[in-house]
Amino acid sequence: MSRKSGYQQKTAAMNGRILIVVLLGLLSTHCTDTSHDFSYQSENLTLTGFEVEDSLRKTTLQDIPEKTPKNDLVLTEGNDITKKLWKAALADVESNIVETPQGRYFGAGKEFGLLVYTRDISFSGVLALNELYPQEMFSSLKVTRDVRLALGLKVSKGYVVPAIKGNWQEEDISEPEFIREHKTNSYTRRTDDVIWLWAARDLFEKNPALADWDWLYDKGSQSFETLYWPFYDTSDGLFRGQSSFIDIHYTDNKATGYPQDFSVADCVLIKALSTNCLYYQGMLSMAAASERLGKSDDKVLWQERAEKLKQAILSQLDLGNGTFSYFKDKTGNLQPRRDALGSALLVLSGIVEGEDAKKCLAGYPESWAGIPILYPFFPWKTFYHNNTAWPFVDTFYLWAKGIAYGKDYTGYNAALLARTCFDGQTFRELVNFKTREPYRSASQLWTASSFLNVCLRKPLAMKQER
Fold it and tell me: CA-to-CA distance for 427 and 88, rounded, in angstroms?
């Protein structure tokens, strides 16, 4: 099936063949570096036009597989390895497009099949796919709303959280059985669902001809009523729910990203920095939709709600030195850890600006293997959402740092992403910080989208190849 990207549509409208990508708003990093080549040099990580080398291996241009995506936008600037990885990233994205009776949407990666992951789709959209694959993004977001709103708070056995006063329906089946039947998890494992509203607003603002603000307003209203407001705590103005993308404990074993004495309920009774930033973006999206639909009273209401949430984040999650806690637990104690994604979202959402944005990121560690998703890590040796770096989180963090400091970190960012491509595989899911080895699912949607994001942030010139 042929498809046109957002860039192709714009190029045709301009009656030209060359398009200089200049992204505004959130994509502006205020960088001063005008170089068109991604290059990076440190003691343990190097990226040149012909190879990427770290302390584990060297991967040359010839080692990276040649891929031919259907999206025919090619870079006309950048070095040889950048151009090849750009094509590989587009092809990885396209390899995740799945067709089902429920609709056409992006899967998360090779290992995840037909499962519907709202967070992976939405973060990938904000990173790059809203610009490059707008039709597929809209179709994907529609699928997420159809699936999630049809289920509501229907969950598998053991995933009801009584302290959350919602319309829970517990099915007498296990979570794996629930996934096989519904192609997604119980909502208790997806309490960062609100991310789709940011992705939808960003998609519509970048593609006005595609925009359906009535749909966003309607589905957003339903989502808040059914799924989101039950998690709101009036006592401190924050939303309960997991830290975004950090899996909560299972009923029969403990996940890695939360205290090991937590229960399933404890994991979703927290007030997470990252997820509350996403709620803030969701409220801004509802305000934007209200404005475009001429609902002036609703616009004011959602703006007031967003401002109230912003102030709650600033007052309730500050560790006292301008940095922010990973989460506040159900007893009101701040977790003495920071998280890279939450810190980045504070900056990207504009909740902190100027010197406060610098303070928010100050002292967060960086390495040749990536940005630790938690700082410090939990003391246990197990890993996945602990003792790891995730390349998509690296990208959000370095994007935010570029905004906060007015500098260009795209070379470092590109090198971190490029090092996940080796042995004929491209753009792996995460990095084990114990071994510094990239591993798990290849052709991961949000890792590939991250490389595209770095190219867009530069920005690099491109044209249609065919």
Answer: 9
